[in-house]
Amino acid sequence: MVEAMIEVEVVYATVDRQVLLTVTVPAGTTVRAAVQQSGIGQAFPELDLADCPVGIFAKQILDPDTRAVQAGDRIEIYRPLLADPKEVRRLRAAKAVEAKARNQ
Which of 1, 8, 23, 51 lies at a CB distance of 3.0 to 4.6 Å from 38, suitable for a disulfide? Predict the structure, then answer.
């Protein structure tokens, strides 16, 4: 019996470079396996594909080792945040208050 094949996309971006790969995998392939089969690790050898956080269409997948991909999925590999978003907002608000005080 011939195994059904599906196409998914695997994407990763750094500050200065983006890569989108289309990969054909057997139906039932897990998210993590699809990422590893994509070959994106060759383009970004610094990535730990066995443990990196991933998502599908901007929704994080908490169990990529068991979640099967579906045809047309866009698997996104996330990189660590450089700054805490709450801290950035707090600093921005403090600057706005300071600027407002100077302009009065």
Answer: 23
